[in-house]
Amino acid sequence: MKKTWIVFWTVFVVVLSGFFYLFWDFWKDTTQSDGERAKAAFTAYTTKWKEQKFSDMYEQLSLHTKKTISKEEFVSRYQNIYGGVEAKAIVVEPMYNGDVMPGEDGQINFHYRLTMETFVEPISFTGKAKLVKETQNDLEDWYIHWNPTFIFPEMKEGDKVRANTMYPRRGEITDRAGRPLATERVVIDIGINPGQWSQTSQTGKMAVSKLLQIPLDDLTSKVQATTSKSAKFIRIATLPQDDARIKQLEKTEGLQLHKKKVRYYPYQDATAHLVGYVGAINQEEYEKRKDQGYKTSDMIGKSGLEQIFEEKLRGSAGGRIVITDAEGTEKKTVVERLAKHGQPLALTIDAEVQQTIYQELKNEAGTAAAISPKTGQILALVNSPSFDPNAFVLGMSATEWKQLNENPQKPLLNRFARGFAPGSTFKPITAAIGLGTGAITPADSIHVRGLHWQKDVSWGGYEVTRVSDYGGPVNLEKALVYSDNIYFAKAALSIGEEPFVKKSELLGFHEALPIPYPLEKSKLYNKGFTNEIQLADSGYGQGEVTMTPLHLALVYSAFSNDGNIVNPSLLQGDKKDGYWKTNVIPADVASTVKQYLIQVMEDPRGTGRGARVPGIRMAGKTGTAELKQKKGELGLENGWYAVFNVDDPRLLVTMMIEDVRGRGGSHVLDARIKRIFTKALKN
């Protein structure tokens, strides 16, 4: 019985509590002032406004407002305007000031401050909201009298908002003489007007297909893939303004032609890998840069200097947000910011030298670098085969991309940024290290009979091979003139591993070059020397030795500068005092090696004699680097030249051409080097 009473009183207390809270809520609602209820309603409205819940905002509008604008129109208007100005970080702050009472008209007014970020600049303004008390859906509450000033204070019914991006002009890239390497030009977008195209005859469509070399099925697919019924222009191609096909296309029914400015590369293939190109920003790039003001419609540097100096070249976009009347006449500028054009990039490159070298390499797989041996200014960085970067700007078909990407000669590969076995062009470096350390002297000679040599039986079946047996002793001068592998293999062993490594590192091996372009580091080895065979092979530029063409040129500059390596520069205005590497080769050693390199070019048996230019004294070294996977097989051979003019040195060129086996080895380069120096120094 006692338990029953306890349960009864417990239930009674719970029920009584429920009635109490229901009564309290009713009493509270009926006693809350109109001002407090209006505040609550407007606070709820501004919260939805911040969160861009436009559909929910509409539900709080007065009956009068709902008669003037439908829910669909209201939501669409906010979405279009806020989307157009890229509104974000919206903050709407009601400005309550003490107790609020309805006016004589029964309405309550609240002021508010709105701030938001836009694609141009942040916007801030104050406005006034009018609330009325009325019943909607059996609920009496305070509702908002909405009008266009809620969007912008100056707006009236029928007005529109227009947002325009003001695009910056991308900075030009020029060579040392101001010749443009990357600039802009006018092109023509060719587009289909779907409505008119459907009326075009089959003959007319076939003519367009033939002119643009686009299959008719592809044109049809582009039209059918466009779901928008209002589409008036479907781009199918972009052509240069002076393209002969423009006149005929202008007369074709169903087509429209629009002019626009795009990036242009006047030297085309010759500078493609150095300058790079721009293209439409992809999703990954956009995600990384959207906080920097990039849009999904932007162009961005994709490779080369265009990519490396993207921030400098791009500039920053401006924009305008204006209010217009129904006819489009501007009434009020809400906010405006002028575009900041990109900065120009002036290079030390000589476009004519670049073009000349490229023409000599064209149709071969190879690379080259050219510098001023006294100043270190980079005159050319050349890659072949190459591609026309303008094709990426204008738009490349899937077929064109496949042909480029699958080309066995790899035109997209940037060879001047990579390291290659330098072959015999490395021998002067071994000579300089050997003389500098005292491991060899100019008078020392070797007398090895035959074409093969090994240190002892510990080498097993491995032998160093040379091209010719000269029938007598070979000293350093003859070894360079004849390019004797055995001499330099023995020299490397005489130097020893540790001094060989230390002295090579003083020349910049395993070190990034001090220029704003990413090149592979030149290397003596991958993971150290494994045995003395590798050391011997390294003495004549084989083993695991790799060098970029530019680094090889820089090291050779020491032979023109008393053993100092010039400081390389790619950008004009880069003030680099002194040398990159000082006293890395003793001055007398540098002079001695230079005299021997002159003989390489002038001696009747010198390997460089075929590249001599009458009237120009030249010093240099040829090289043939053999790339093979295992002993006994014939590997790929790359032909090299490293050469500079001696009197008033103005040009130092390193050049490599791949796959010269059976074509004369490095002599494939003879005539090319001769023409380059003739044109650059004599013309």
What does this protein structure show overall?
The protein has 683 residues and is of the alpha+beta class. It contains 24 helices and 23 strands. Among the domains are: 29 residues; 126 residues, NTF2-like, domain 1 (Nuclear Transport Factor 2, Chain: A, Roll), CATH 3.10.450.100; 276 residues, Beta-lactamase. Strands 6, 7, 8, 9 and 14 form a 5-stranded mixed β-sheet that branches. It has a 5-stranded antiparallel β-sheet with strand order 16-15-23-22-21, sandwiched between helices. About 4% of the residues have low confidence. InterPro entries: Beta-lactam/transpept, Beta-lactam/transpept-like, MecA_N, NTF2-like_dom_sf, PBP_dimer, PBP_dimer_sf, PCN-bd_Tpept. It comes from Brevibacillus brevis (strain 47 / JCM 6285 / NBRC 100599). It is found in: Membrane.
The 3D shape can be described as: elongated
Mean pLDDT, to the nearest integer, reads: 91
CATH class descriptor name of the domain at 357-378 and 415-668: Alpha Beta
Radius of gyration: 38 Å
Shape-level CATH architecture of the domain at 357-378 and 415-668: 3-Layer(aba) Sandwich
What secondary-structure arrangement, pairings included, does this model have?
Blueprint lengths: L1 H30 L2 H17 L3 H6 L3 H6 L2 H14 L3 E8 L12 E10 L5 E14 L2 E7 L14 E7 L6 E2 L5 E13 L1 H4 L4 H11 L3 H9 L9 E7 L5 H5 L4 E10 L7 H4 L2 E3 L2 H7 L9 E3 L2 H5 L1 H5 L3 E7 L5 E8 L7 E2 L4 H11 L4 E6 L6 E7 L5 H5 L3 H8 L21 H11 L7 E2 L5 E2 L10 E2 L8 E2 H7 L2 H11 L1 H10 L25 H7 L10 H9 L29 H16 L15 E10 L8 E10 L6 E6 L12 H13 L1
Parallel strand pairs: 6-14
Antiparallel strand pairs: 1-2, 2-3, 3-4, 5-12, 6-7, 7-8, 7-9, 10-11, 12-13, 15-16, 15-23, 17-20, 18-19, 21-22, 22-23
Helix pairs in contact: 14-24, 17-19, 17-20, 17-23, 18-23, 19-21
